[in-house]
Amino acid sequence: MRPTLLTTLCEPSRRIATVALGTVAALGMLSAPAQASTYNSHLTGAGPGFESTRWNDNGGATNIKFTGCTDDYSNQRVSVRLRKDTFGPDPSYTNASFTQCFVSSSSTSSGNWDDHGSGEYYFVVNDALVGVHVWVKSLTVTY
User: Cβ distance 54 to 123 under 8 Å?
Assistant: First the structure.
């Protein structure tokens, strides 16, 4: 079969398209898997009902870790509750009671929450303890 002007012009375009698709596929296979995000902070005299900074979670488990805790009543316990920021009443999830972080300035306590879907999340400190303020040397939220 004798090539026509149309098939002669289309052949280079097909090669370019094939190379481009192969490159895109190879880059897709080599790209790294999604990594968990974190934010680090601390608490200074956080009172009952204190709400943390919000973070945007695209889905996945959440871990909250406190290191070096103190409080103003020697209560030696801080409650941490994960909440999801919504337009209506914010749903709340399991309450974690952190005690180990009070042992020393380098001791840690952490809580894990299962995936509750994507959205804006935050945690609340001591939502059931009246008058107790807490100081946390460092905290890390991994989501």
Answer: no
